[in-house]
Design goal:
The chain is of the alpha/beta class and about 375 residues long. It folds into 2 domains: about 5-270, TIM Barrel; about 270-374, no CATH class. About 40% of the residues lie in helices and about 20% in strands. It contains 15 helices and 16 strands. The chain has helices at about 45-50, 60-65, 70-75, 80-85, 95-100, 130-140, 160-180, 195-210, 225-235, 255-260, 270-280, 310-315, 315-325, 330-355, 360-370; strands at about 5-10, 15-25, 25-30, 30-35, 60, 90-95, 110, 115-120, 125-130, 145, 185-190, 215, 245-250, 265-270, 280, 290. The strands form 4 sheets. An 8-stranded parallel beta sheet has the order 4-14-13-12-11-10-6-5. Strands 1-2-3 form a 3-stranded antiparallel beta sheet. The protein is globular, with a radius of gyration of 20 Å.
Protein backbone atom coordinates (compact mmCIF):
# COMPACT_ATOMS: atom_id res chain seq x y z
CA UNK A 1 0.00 0.00 0.00
CA UNK A 2 1.07 3.59 -0.58
CA UNK A 3 1.44 5.87 2.43
CA UNK A 4 -1.47 8.21 2.93
CA UNK A 5 -1.37 11.45 4.86
CA UNK A 6 -4.45 12.57 6.78
CA UNK A 7 -4.55 16.19 7.94
CA UNK A 8 -6.35 16.48 11.26
CA UNK A 9 -5.72 20.08 12.23
CA UNK A 10 -3.67 23.17 11.39
CA UNK A 11 -2.58 25.26 14.38
CA UNK A 12 -4.48 28.56 14.33
CA UNK A 13 -1.42 30.82 14.67
CA UNK A 14 1.08 29.02 12.43
CA UNK A 15 1.38 26.48 9.63
CA UNK A 16 1.99 23.64 12.12
CA UNK A 17 0.00 20.52 11.26
CA UNK A 18 -1.37 17.64 13.25
CA UNK A 19 -1.84 14.56 11.13
CA UNK A 20 -1.78 10.82 10.74
CA UNK A 21 0.39 8.83 8.36
CA UNK A 22 -1.13 5.55 7.21
CA UNK A 23 1.54 2.97 6.30
CA UNK A 24 1.98 -0.73 5.62
CA UNK A 25 2.79 -1.19 9.29
CA UNK A 26 0.11 0.86 10.97
CA UNK A 27 -0.96 4.47 11.43
CA UNK A 28 1.27 6.99 13.17
CA UNK A 29 0.88 10.54 14.43
CA UNK A 30 2.73 13.48 12.92
CA UNK A 31 4.83 15.57 13.41
CA UNK A 32 7.30 12.71 13.77
CA UNK A 33 11.02 12.27 14.36
CA UNK A 34 12.55 9.29 12.53
CA UNK A 35 15.72 7.65 13.92
CA UNK A 36 18.40 6.80 11.36
CA UNK A 37 19.58 3.22 10.89
CA UNK A 38 21.99 3.76 8.01
CA UNK A 39 23.24 0.16 7.74
CA UNK A 40 19.91 -1.47 8.64
CA UNK A 41 20.56 -0.73 12.32
CA UNK A 42 20.08 2.31 14.53
CA UNK A 43 23.56 2.15 16.01
CA UNK A 44 23.80 -0.14 19.08
CA UNK A 45 20.01 -0.39 19.49
CA UNK A 46 17.55 -3.23 18.90
CA UNK A 47 14.16 -2.90 17.16
CA UNK A 48 12.50 -3.74 20.46
CA UNK A 49 14.24 -0.82 22.16
CA UNK A 50 13.16 1.51 19.38
CA UNK A 51 9.56 0.43 19.76
CA UNK A 52 9.80 1.03 23.51
CA UNK A 53 10.82 4.61 22.70
CA UNK A 54 7.64 4.94 20.57
CA UNK A 55 9.63 5.06 17.35
CA UNK A 56 7.63 4.71 14.14
CA UNK A 57 9.44 5.17 10.81
CA UNK A 58 13.18 4.53 10.80
CA UNK A 59 15.65 5.20 7.98
CA UNK A 60 18.18 3.08 6.17
CA UNK A 61 20.48 4.16 3.37
CA UNK A 62 20.57 2.93 -0.20
CA UNK A 63 24.21 3.78 -0.88
CA UNK A 64 25.55 1.97 2.19
CA UNK A 65 23.35 -1.11 1.75
CA UNK A 66 24.26 -1.25 -1.94
CA UNK A 67 27.91 -1.60 -0.93
CA UNK A 68 27.33 -3.82 2.10
CA UNK A 69 25.75 -6.38 2.12
CA UNK A 70 24.23 -5.67 -1.31
CA UNK A 71 20.59 -5.29 -2.27
CA UNK A 72 20.35 -8.90 -3.51
CA UNK A 73 21.31 -10.24 -0.09
CA UNK A 74 18.65 -8.09 1.56
CA UNK A 75 16.08 -9.18 -1.03
CA UNK A 76 16.97 -12.85 -0.44
CA UNK A 77 16.32 -12.32 3.27
CA UNK A 78 12.81 -11.11 2.45
CA UNK A 79 13.51 -7.38 2.36
CA UNK A 80 14.71 -4.92 4.99
CA UNK A 81 11.95 -5.64 7.50
CA UNK A 82 12.83 -9.33 7.66
CA UNK A 83 16.56 -8.72 7.39
CA UNK A 84 16.68 -6.37 10.38
CA UNK A 85 13.65 -7.72 12.27
CA UNK A 86 11.78 -4.40 12.32
CA UNK A 87 8.00 -4.61 12.02
CA UNK A 88 7.50 -0.88 11.59
CA UNK A 89 7.72 1.36 8.52
CA UNK A 90 11.13 1.95 6.92
CA UNK A 91 12.25 4.80 4.66
CA UNK A 92 15.33 4.45 2.46
CA UNK A 93 17.33 7.49 1.43
CA UNK A 94 18.33 7.47 -2.24
CA UNK A 95 22.06 7.58 -1.58
CA UNK A 96 22.38 10.97 -3.21
CA UNK A 97 23.58 12.80 -0.11
CA UNK A 98 26.16 10.10 0.64
CA UNK A 99 27.51 10.18 -2.91
CA UNK A 100 28.15 13.88 -2.59
CA UNK A 101 29.41 13.85 1.00
CA UNK A 102 31.27 10.55 1.46
CA UNK A 103 32.79 9.82 -1.93
CA UNK A 104 36.49 8.97 -1.64
CA UNK A 105 38.47 12.21 -1.72
CA UNK A 106 35.15 13.96 -2.51
CA UNK A 107 36.00 13.57 -6.21
CA UNK A 108 33.01 12.91 -8.45
CA UNK A 109 31.92 13.45 -11.99
CA UNK A 110 28.31 14.49 -12.40
CA UNK A 111 26.99 13.68 -15.86
CA UNK A 112 23.47 13.59 -17.23
CA UNK A 113 23.28 9.81 -16.81
CA UNK A 114 24.31 9.87 -13.12
CA UNK A 115 27.37 10.27 -10.91
CA UNK A 116 30.80 8.68 -11.24
CA UNK A 117 32.60 8.56 -7.90
CA UNK A 118 34.80 6.37 -5.73
CA UNK A 119 33.66 4.21 -2.83
CA UNK A 120 34.40 5.67 0.58
CA UNK A 121 35.39 2.15 1.67
CA UNK A 122 38.08 1.14 -0.79
CA UNK A 123 38.21 3.74 -3.54
CA UNK A 124 36.56 1.43 -6.07
CA UNK A 125 35.00 3.31 -9.03
CA UNK A 126 31.22 3.40 -8.84
CA UNK A 127 28.43 4.79 -10.99
CA UNK A 128 25.02 5.53 -9.53
CA UNK A 129 22.09 6.60 -11.67
CA UNK A 130 18.53 7.65 -10.77
CA UNK A 131 17.27 4.36 -12.20
CA UNK A 132 19.74 2.23 -10.27
CA UNK A 133 18.97 4.01 -7.00
CA UNK A 134 15.26 3.24 -7.40
CA UNK A 135 15.92 -0.34 -8.50
CA UNK A 136 18.06 -0.93 -5.42
CA UNK A 137 15.33 0.53 -3.20
CA UNK A 138 12.72 -1.66 -4.90
CA UNK A 139 14.77 -4.70 -3.88
CA UNK A 140 15.34 -3.40 -0.35
CA UNK A 141 11.53 -3.26 -0.14
CA UNK A 142 11.31 -0.24 2.16
CA UNK A 143 7.92 1.35 2.68
CA UNK A 144 9.13 4.72 1.37
CA UNK A 145 11.79 5.24 -1.30
CA UNK A 146 13.41 8.57 -2.09
CA UNK A 147 14.16 10.00 -5.53
CA UNK A 148 17.83 10.33 -6.47
CA UNK A 149 18.82 13.98 -6.40
CA UNK A 150 21.89 16.14 -6.62
CA UNK A 151 23.00 17.63 -3.29
CA UNK A 152 25.01 20.75 -4.12
CA UNK A 153 27.01 22.50 -1.39
CA UNK A 154 25.52 25.49 0.41
CA UNK A 155 28.18 27.66 -1.20
CA UNK A 156 27.05 26.84 -4.75
CA UNK A 157 26.25 29.78 -7.00
CA UNK A 158 22.77 30.68 -8.18
CA UNK A 159 23.59 29.54 -11.71
CA UNK A 160 24.90 26.20 -10.49
CA UNK A 161 21.84 25.66 -8.28
CA UNK A 162 19.53 26.52 -11.17
CA UNK A 163 21.12 23.85 -13.36
CA UNK A 164 21.16 21.43 -10.43
CA UNK A 165 17.42 21.87 -9.87
CA UNK A 166 16.75 21.07 -13.52
CA UNK A 167 18.96 17.99 -13.32
CA UNK A 168 17.24 16.81 -10.14
CA UNK A 169 13.86 17.17 -11.85
CA UNK A 170 15.02 15.10 -14.81
CA UNK A 171 16.47 12.48 -12.49
CA UNK A 172 13.22 12.39 -10.48
CA UNK A 173 11.21 11.66 -13.63
CA UNK A 174 13.64 8.96 -14.70
CA UNK A 175 13.54 7.29 -11.30
CA UNK A 176 9.76 7.40 -11.17
CA UNK A 177 9.54 5.76 -14.58
CA UNK A 178 11.30 2.59 -13.34
CA UNK A 179 9.73 2.39 -9.88
CA UNK A 180 7.79 -0.87 -9.82
CA UNK A 181 7.24 -1.92 -6.21
CA UNK A 182 3.47 -1.65 -5.62
CA UNK A 183 3.87 -1.69 -1.83
CA UNK A 184 6.48 1.05 -1.79
CA UNK A 185 5.78 4.78 -1.87
CA UNK A 186 8.09 7.15 -3.75
CA UNK A 187 8.84 10.68 -2.57
CA UNK A 188 10.07 13.60 -4.62
CA UNK A 189 12.74 15.99 -3.38
CA UNK A 190 12.61 19.78 -3.61
CA UNK A 191 15.95 21.58 -4.03
CA UNK A 192 17.02 25.15 -4.80
CA UNK A 193 19.20 26.36 -1.95
CA UNK A 194 18.00 29.51 -0.21
CA UNK A 195 16.63 31.09 -3.39
CA UNK A 196 12.89 31.66 -3.35
CA UNK A 197 12.38 31.42 -7.11
CA UNK A 198 14.36 28.17 -7.38
CA UNK A 199 12.54 26.57 -4.46
CA UNK A 200 9.18 27.62 -5.89
CA UNK A 201 10.06 26.27 -9.33
CA UNK A 202 11.47 23.03 -7.94
CA UNK A 203 8.40 22.49 -5.74
CA UNK A 204 5.87 23.22 -8.48
CA UNK A 205 7.58 21.01 -11.05
CA UNK A 206 8.16 18.16 -8.57
CA UNK A 207 4.53 18.22 -7.45
CA UNK A 208 3.44 17.97 -11.10
CA UNK A 209 4.98 14.48 -11.15
CA UNK A 210 2.49 13.40 -8.44
CA UNK A 211 4.73 11.68 -5.90
CA UNK A 212 3.36 9.97 -2.80
CA UNK A 213 5.04 12.54 -0.54
CA UNK A 214 7.51 15.41 -0.76
CA UNK A 215 10.75 16.24 0.97
CA UNK A 216 12.72 19.45 1.31
CA UNK A 217 16.36 18.66 0.58
CA UNK A 218 19.61 20.55 0.67
CA UNK A 219 19.01 22.02 4.13
CA UNK A 220 21.54 20.01 6.15
CA UNK A 221 24.66 20.81 4.15
CA UNK A 222 27.85 22.09 5.74
CA UNK A 223 28.02 25.86 5.85
CA UNK A 224 24.32 26.58 5.58
CA UNK A 225 22.93 29.06 8.10
CA UNK A 226 19.77 28.41 10.09
CA UNK A 227 18.20 31.42 8.39
CA UNK A 228 18.82 29.83 5.00
CA UNK A 229 17.32 26.58 6.25
CA UNK A 230 14.18 28.30 7.46
CA UNK A 231 13.92 30.28 4.22
CA UNK A 232 14.18 27.05 2.22
CA UNK A 233 11.26 25.63 4.19
CA UNK A 234 9.17 28.78 3.85
CA UNK A 235 9.80 28.94 0.11
CA UNK A 236 8.86 25.27 -0.45
CA UNK A 237 5.92 24.51 1.84
CA UNK A 238 3.23 26.63 0.09
CA UNK A 239 3.49 24.52 -3.07
CA UNK A 240 3.22 21.08 -1.46
CA UNK A 241 -0.38 19.76 -1.47
CA UNK A 242 -2.05 19.71 1.93
CA UNK A 243 -2.93 16.03 1.55
CA UNK A 244 0.71 14.94 1.09
CA UNK A 245 3.26 14.47 3.83
CA UNK A 246 6.13 16.98 4.08
CA UNK A 247 9.58 15.75 5.08
CA UNK A 248 12.59 17.89 6.05
CA UNK A 249 15.67 15.79 5.34
CA UNK A 250 18.59 15.42 7.72
CA UNK A 251 17.42 17.77 10.48
CA UNK A 252 17.49 16.74 14.15
CA UNK A 253 18.48 19.74 16.23
CA UNK A 254 15.63 20.34 18.72
CA UNK A 255 15.30 24.03 17.86
CA UNK A 256 15.24 23.27 14.13
CA UNK A 257 12.56 20.63 14.65
CA UNK A 258 10.37 23.13 16.49
CA UNK A 259 10.92 25.80 13.84
CA UNK A 260 10.27 23.27 11.08
CA UNK A 261 6.99 22.14 12.64
CA UNK A 262 5.87 25.75 13.01
CA UNK A 263 6.51 26.17 9.28
CA UNK A 264 4.44 23.12 8.32
CA UNK A 265 6.88 20.17 8.26
CA UNK A 266 5.60 16.71 9.26
CA UNK A 267 8.67 14.42 9.25
CA UNK A 268 12.28 14.83 10.40
CA UNK A 269 15.30 12.55 10.51
CA UNK A 270 18.90 12.87 11.66
CA UNK A 271 21.88 10.84 12.89
CA UNK A 272 22.52 13.53 15.53
CA UNK A 273 21.06 11.77 18.62
CA UNK A 274 23.21 8.66 18.21
CA UNK A 275 26.26 10.52 16.89
CA UNK A 276 26.52 12.88 19.86
CA UNK A 277 25.77 9.97 22.20
CA UNK A 278 28.90 8.16 21.07
CA UNK A 279 30.88 11.23 22.10
CA UNK A 280 29.29 11.41 25.55
CA UNK A 281 26.68 14.11 24.88
CA UNK A 282 23.04 14.14 25.94
CA UNK A 283 20.08 16.29 25.02
CA UNK A 284 18.38 17.95 28.00
CA UNK A 285 15.78 20.67 28.51
CA UNK A 286 18.68 22.96 29.39
CA UNK A 287 20.73 22.28 26.27
CA UNK A 288 23.25 19.58 25.43
CA UNK A 289 25.48 18.33 28.24
CA UNK A 290 28.82 16.56 27.93
CA UNK A 291 28.96 13.78 30.48
CA UNK A 292 32.73 13.53 30.12
CA UNK A 293 32.87 16.69 32.23
CA UNK A 294 34.41 16.01 35.64
CA UNK A 295 31.50 17.61 37.48
CA UNK A 296 29.39 14.53 36.69
CA UNK A 297 31.87 12.13 38.31
CA UNK A 298 29.80 11.88 41.51
CA UNK A 299 26.42 13.03 40.15
CA UNK A 300 24.09 10.14 40.91
CA UNK A 301 20.98 11.73 39.45
CA UNK A 302 19.52 10.72 36.05
CA UNK A 303 20.19 12.77 32.93
CA UNK A 304 16.68 14.23 33.31
CA UNK A 305 14.49 13.52 36.30
CA UNK A 306 11.24 13.79 34.32
CA UNK A 307 12.39 11.66 31.35
CA UNK A 308 10.58 8.35 30.90
CA UNK A 309 13.33 6.61 28.92
CA UNK A 310 14.98 3.37 30.07
CA UNK A 311 18.27 5.15 30.69
CA UNK A 312 16.87 7.86 32.95
CA UNK A 313 14.76 5.38 34.90
CA UNK A 314 17.73 3.14 35.70
CA UNK A 315 21.11 4.90 35.45
CA UNK A 316 22.90 7.92 36.84
CA UNK A 317 25.04 10.50 35.13
CA UNK A 318 28.00 9.28 37.20
CA UNK A 319 27.64 5.72 35.91
CA UNK A 320 27.19 6.79 32.30
CA UNK A 321 30.22 9.08 32.59
CA UNK A 322 32.24 6.16 33.95
CA UNK A 323 31.25 4.06 30.92
CA UNK A 324 32.06 6.83 28.45
CA UNK A 325 35.50 7.71 29.85
CA UNK A 326 36.36 3.99 30.02
CA UNK A 327 35.25 3.57 26.40
CA UNK A 328 32.58 1.04 27.31
CA UNK A 329 30.05 0.71 24.50
CA UNK A 330 27.13 0.58 26.94
CA UNK A 331 27.66 4.30 27.60
CA UNK A 332 26.91 5.22 24.01
CA UNK A 333 23.96 2.84 23.98
CA UNK A 334 22.39 4.39 27.05
CA UNK A 335 22.89 7.92 25.74
CA UNK A 336 21.45 6.93 22.35
CA UNK A 337 18.34 5.62 24.05
CA UNK A 338 17.91 8.87 25.96
CA UNK A 339 18.65 11.15 22.99
CA UNK A 340 16.26 9.42 20.60
CA UNK A 341 13.54 9.34 23.21
CA UNK A 342 14.19 13.05 23.92
CA UNK A 343 13.45 13.97 20.29
CA UNK A 344 10.44 11.66 20.12
CA UNK A 345 9.10 13.23 23.34
CA UNK A 346 9.70 16.63 21.77
CA UNK A 347 7.45 15.89 18.78
CA UNK A 348 4.88 14.32 21.10
CA UNK A 349 4.75 17.61 23.02
CA UNK A 350 4.60 19.57 19.79
CA UNK A 351 1.54 17.56 18.77
CA UNK A 352 -0.15 18.54 22.02
CA UNK A 353 0.80 22.18 21.47
CA UNK A 354 -0.73 22.10 17.98
CA UNK A 355 -3.91 20.57 19.38
CA UNK A 356 -4.09 23.34 21.98
CA UNK A 357 -3.14 26.13 19.51
CA UNK A 358 -0.21 27.30 21.64
CA UNK A 359 2.86 26.16 19.73
CA UNK A 360 4.46 29.62 19.78
CA UNK A 361 4.19 29.70 23.56
CA UNK A 362 5.68 26.22 23.67
CA UNK A 363 8.60 27.36 21.52
CA UNK A 364 9.30 30.40 23.69
CA UNK A 365 9.19 28.34 26.88
CA UNK A 366 11.44 25.67 25.39
CA UNK A 367 14.00 28.19 24.15
CA UNK A 368 14.06 30.00 27.50
CA UNK A 369 15.34 26.80 29.12
CA UNK A 370 17.29 25.25 26.26
CA UNK A 371 19.24 28.40 25.44
CA UNK A 372 19.39 29.60 29.07
CA UNK A 373 17.83 32.86 27.94
CA UNK A 374 14.65 34.68 28.88
Amino acid sequence: MKVKYELLKTEKNTKARLGKLHTNYGTYDTPMFMPVGTLANVKTLTPEELKEMHSAIILSNTYHLWLRPGEDIVAAAGGLHQFMHYDGPILTDSGGFQVFSLAKNKKKDIVEEGVHFKSHLDGKPLFLTPELSIQIQNKLDSDIAMSFDECPPASASYEYLKNSVERTLRWAARGKSVHNNPNQSLFGIIQGGAYEDLRRYSAIETVKMDFDGYSIGGVANDGESKEDMYHAIDYSIPYIPEDKVRYLMGVGDPIDIIEGVIRGVDLFDCVLPTRIARHGNAFTRYGKVNLKNAKYKDDFSPIESDCDCYTCKNYSKAYIRHLIVCDESLGGRLLSIHNIRFLIRLVEELRVAIQQDNILEYRDQFLAKYCNCK
